[in-house]
Structure formats: C-alpha cells, structure tokens
Amino acid sequence: MTIDRRALLGSGAGALLLSGAARAGTRDPLAPYRTPYKYPKLILGGSGIPGSFDEKAVDCPFVFSANGKFYLTYVGFDGTGYQTGICESTNLIDWTRKGVILARDPSDPITRFNIACASILRENELQSPARLIKVGGRYVAAWHAYPNAGYEEGAAVIGLAWSDDLLHWERGPVILRAEDGAEWERGGLYKPYLVKIGDTFHLYYNAKTTGRPWKEQTGLAISKDLRSWTRHPASPLIRNGPEGAPDFRFASDPVVVSHRGQWGMFYFGLAKDGYARDLFAFGDSPTRFTKADEVLIDVGPPGSIDEKFAHKPAVIHHDGALYHFYCAVSGKWPNDVRGLAVARSKPW
C-alpha cells in the first residue's frame, strides 16, 4: 500500500492536548510571535476550475510586500503535481489571483511534474513590512521539486530562480540534492527558506528520512555566492521531539525571523496523533534554536476550516499587528479541503 505525505498527515485520531508554556513573572518572550485571533474563513482555496494549476487545492503560503501591495505566493495542486502561483492584495484578506509564476516543464527531468517556490529573499526582521531584497539587481527565490507524478513522489531537490518583475522567473540549477546529505535528509528535501545574514546566505529547509513511516527535521545550508553551498554541521537544527510532543513525526517548513537582536523560527510539527500545528523556536544565533513549549496555531474544533491541520507558516507585520498565514485542512483524506488561512495578533 502506498502512503503519501498527505495521507500520513491525515491519519491521526483525536486532538493532542497541550497545556502551553508556564510563564515566569511578567516576562513573556513568546508574546511578539503570538497570533491568537483566527480569521474564520479561508482566504484562498482551490479554484475548482477544471484544468487550472490550482484546481484541487492550494498550499504553502509565502507573504511579502512590493510596489505598494501585498503578495502571496502559493502552491497549487491539480491532481498531477505542484505548480506555483501568485496573488495580490491591499488588505491581507482579499486576494486576487495573478497566475502561475513557476510552471512544470514536461521536457525537464527535474520539474516535469512539480515545482514549488517556497520563499523569495526578503527582509527578515519580524516587524518589518517584509520588502524584498534584490541580489545583483534581481529577485531571487528558492524552490523544491519532486521528480515523479503524484503528491511528493521521489527524492526532491532544491534550487533557485531569478526574476526582474516577480511574474516571470528563470529557473537556475539544482543546489541541494538529498543523496548528498546526511541520513536524516536522504528521503527528499522540502521547503527551502532563504535568508541573508550579513554577507552569508542561509537556506533553511526540512527533509525526510528514507522508508516508511519517515520522519522530517529541519536543517541549514550556507553560501557566500548563491552558487556553492555547504550544509551546516549543526543540522538538523530542529529535531523531532519525544513521543507525545507536537513535533514527534515532523519538524518542518521553517520561517526564520530576527527580533530585537534575537532569532526565531516558526515551523510546524506533526504529532503522533496525526494532527499538524504551527510551533516556534527561539534562537540565540541563526544556527542554534530552543523550542518553545507552546503551540502557536493549534487545530480548530470539529467542523472548522483547520480541524485537521493548521500548519506551514508565513508571517508579515502590518498596521501594528503580526499576520500569520498557514495552510488549513479540514475533512478526511483523500476528500479533505486544503486552503490558506490567517490569524493575527489583534482581534479582527
């Protein structure tokens, strides 16, 4: 029997009960990162248009600002594989689809079925407006691609892409392959998140072990020139927690930010119960993190848009509030509903 990642993420029964962090005194280091107020509806769902790249579902948000507007890149699934689209907004709630920015190439052995843009180089300060950063006068994005048809089949690779206008992208060569890494990443590479710190590019990514059931953890590769990459010896930076922890199976989809001289990593965990939730880890450096003992975005009650999963974070600060986008999943695999949702730090 074949079990894919979506089936694994939907196999749990019963919600994990977490007590949250016990806070000492009045100091609450997690306060700047919390977004307890969920918007009650999906802000983007599958288009339902036959033949469209995002007909079946949307996934993996990435948010930023440019040209006086907000933009959200996302992955669309059409029943065959992933492709990447973009939408725009003036208020972070109402989004207009602008089309595909990275499409699969049937003639290419790497992207013939899938290509998922996961991040574009941007400001990483938590309370910045998340403006993009150019390199050599161009925007640079990180993508991953699974080589076979279906949902994440085969050992994926990571690469970069370049653009002058955000809508048209030139795909560059592969920069990381699963077979070149350690045992924890040999099964395939997932979401890459690109950050520039000083003169060094940091590429955070999660990956999976071989075999089934697999586990996912988060590591790091670094580069001075975006061409030659070295895996950081501290990897995996975020490891799976013990049985009963919210990240027992997966510790995945990193988003790294800076705030008041410190670092933070949003990521999602998959627990033994099969439910996925967004989590957080504090960093005293961009290569060393300590997990917070509190769930940032938990699954919702039965019947809600995120009753199964509330995972895959993306954040932006606007008008005095932090917005936390995530992939919300309801229903039962394989007929679940997968779309994008948002929570923020102040009430709606």
Layout of strands and helices, then pairs:
Blueprint (H helix, E strand, L loop, with lengths): L4 H5 L27 E2 L18 E10 L2 E9 L4 E8 L6 E7 L13 E5 L18 E7 L11 E7 L5 E9 L10 E10 L2 E9 L7 E8 L6 E2 L18 E10 L2 E9 L5 E10 L2 E4 L17 E10 L2 E10 L6 E8 L4
Parallel strand pairs: 16-18
Antiparallel strand pairs: 1-20, 2-3, 3-4, 4-5, 6-7, 7-8, 8-9, 10-11, 11-12, 12-13, 14-15, 15-16, 16-17, 18-19, 19-20
The description of the largest β-sheet is: 8 strands, mixed
Main CATH class: Mainly Beta
**Sheet/helix structural class:** mainly beta
| Number of structurally distinct domains | 1
The fold-level CATH name is: Tachylectin-2, Chain A
Q: Report the sheet-strand fraction.
A: 35-45%
Keywords: Glycosidase, Hydrolase, Signal
Family: Belongs to the glycosyl hydrolase 32 family.
Organism: Sphingomonas kyeonggiensis
InterPro entries: Glyco_hydro_32_N, Glyco_hydro_beta-prop_sf, TAT_signal
